[in-house]
Amino acid sequence: MPMIQSRGTDREEALVQTFIKRDRFGRSSLAGEAAALQWLAAAEADGGIHVASVVSATDAELVEERIVTRAATAAAARMAGSALAKTHAAGAPWWGCPPVGWSGSYRIEHSLTPTVDKSDAPSTWGSFYAEYRVMAYVRVLRDSRQYASSEVAVYDRLASRLISGIYDAPQPTLVTAHGYEVARLHGDLWAGNLLWDANQANPTGAALIDPMAYGGHAETDLAMLDLFGCSYLDELLRGYNETSTLADGWRERIGLHQLAPLLLHCVLFGGFYLNVALRTARRYI
Question: Crossing angle of helices 218-227/254-269, nearest 10°?
């Protein structure tokens, strides 16, 4: 995005390279991103996937570890899948919760993706997803006249079905084994934010960058990887499922979990995504 600038430096004359993001126009959430990176990184002690470390952060600037990349391999993907399952299993205290030490909305340009205060937290995934991931975007699209009332009605019907609990499903087994109902998500896990790490000391095969982390359903992160394509995705899913078994029917729910990022793209870009999101929503009503 145009407000982001970057450069590489040596930190403390060590071999660690840093990557700097700057936002002079208030169009992103750098403090939230830093909190998200640190929240996800807390899972590394229990085998969670590596996360770019935070060197320093303010509202206007984020300095983080630069991940040197390599080509994807099946073995790295399988390790990454297993490690991602352990990150999800670090859990979250409620649906939509923000990372520890931060609260608010993640901003991308003019779009806001809200987190949820504990006092407002829904008791089920379906209720959370309907209100804070589907209808939050649909209302923006309605108000900007990108969707007509008949199209908004499709989403209203879907929201009712979500709230009814028809699409609620158990978390992967490792999440529940750790005592959590809610998983710890990256929140924007398309392939560009999953980097294949060239550092041989990283036992997880990959590293995460650019999160919009919150408490949600683990299937949402996996569906996002599927949405825009990911190298060796089948191997990654195999590694994940061997570590933390996914609930029955998870493949049939992929489109449902992809709807939130599709709607975000509708808000950001409109056009083609409006019809793709609407077709996806109709599959589940």
Answer: 60
Burial of 241 from C-beta contacts in 10 A (0-12 / 13-18 / 19+): middle
DSSP letter at 182 equals B
Per-residue pLDDT tens over the stretch 276-285: 999 999 999 9
In whole angstroms, give the CA distance from residue 198 to residue 90. Answer: 25
Number of other CB atoms surrounding residue 269 within 10 Å: 12
CA 256 from centre of chain: 15
Residue 173: CB atoms within 10 A of its CB come to 16
CA distances from 146 to 129, 178, 240, 256, 267 (A): 21, 43, 38, 21, 9
pTM: 0.92
pLDDT digits (tens, 9 = 90+) for 199-217: 989 999 999 999 999 999 9
The two three-digit tokens of residue 173, written as one number: 């087994």
d(CA 144, CA 139): 9
Strands 183-185 and 61-65: unpaired
Answer whether 224's CB lies under 8 Å from 190's CB: yes
